[in-house]
Amino acid sequence: MCYISPRDLFKFMQIEENVQLAPYTTYKIGGPARYFVACKTAQDISEAISWAKENNQSYFVLGGGSNILVSDEGYNGLVISIQNTGYEVNGTTLEAGAGASMHVLVAETTDNSLEGLDWAGGLPGQLGGAIRGNAGAFGGEMKDVITEVHAVSEDGKVKTFTADECEFEYRTSFFKKNPEWIIISAKMDLKKGDREKLVGRVAELVEWRRTKHPMQYGNSGSIFKRYSVGQIPVSIFEKYPHITRAMRDGQIASAFFIDEAGLKLKKIGGAQVSDKHPNFIINESGTARAEDVIMLISTVKSSVLHQFGILLEEEIKFLQG
After folding, report:
1. Is 171 a catalytic residue?
2. pTM of the predicted structure, to 2 decimals
3. Which of 36, 109, 153, 277 is most buried (most C-beta within 10 Å)?
4. Is pLDDT at 174 greater than 60 in this prediction?
């Protein structure tokens, strides 16, 4: 048997060493990956995982980096960067790689008078991550348009998942619960719409995000999940009747509790609770450390728990080790 050393595989697979991860995230925070490889196909991913296993390395699949906080020490393993960005529109069907930018897909579909992704105007990140977390906003969710998802397993098996098999729920899916399956592409069923209205709506949503969200700073989007109305004690509705203003689709925005706890502009190191949207913790100085963000998240959770008896649950993914 011909043995290929890890060093030879570096050349074959173009594995890099000590790659800074901060530029690959929207937070612009985090240390280096010990190993890093860009993947565009299921075979690339399978080979990268095989290499990691053969060399006793942990691995992490990185998409658009919009919902992740990388530790200051980085990641002592292999980061697999999904970079298959291709897409194709055929009638009302959109097929796209997991690495496709949501911004690009929204622009392309609305420009082709297709309705179904317009709710995602201004949404950061890539398609794979949006599917994995069943991203949603303004009354729409990924589950509303997905018909098929193609994924590869750790052992190289490629499978096509139906919409039902994706098991979409609020901000989660089969793939989030079973990370051994890595999304490589998906098919979406859209419908014909009015191009002018769709383009106008997307522009409005992009502007809404710009004015309501602290987009000028590094951030990872919403830090905490929403709460179901049924999870909120009646006593809170009695004490804070204006909570209804934070209610949408049977859920309460976590920003309400953070705001009421007086945490806007709370700062630790270079991390700060946004004044625009308190469910955003921003890299206000541009030099914030992951440790600053983690400590601030802990402070927010503790304060909200003390005042409301509610334990906030993070949406953000922590990458460390």
Report:
1. yes
2. 0.89
3. 109
4. yes
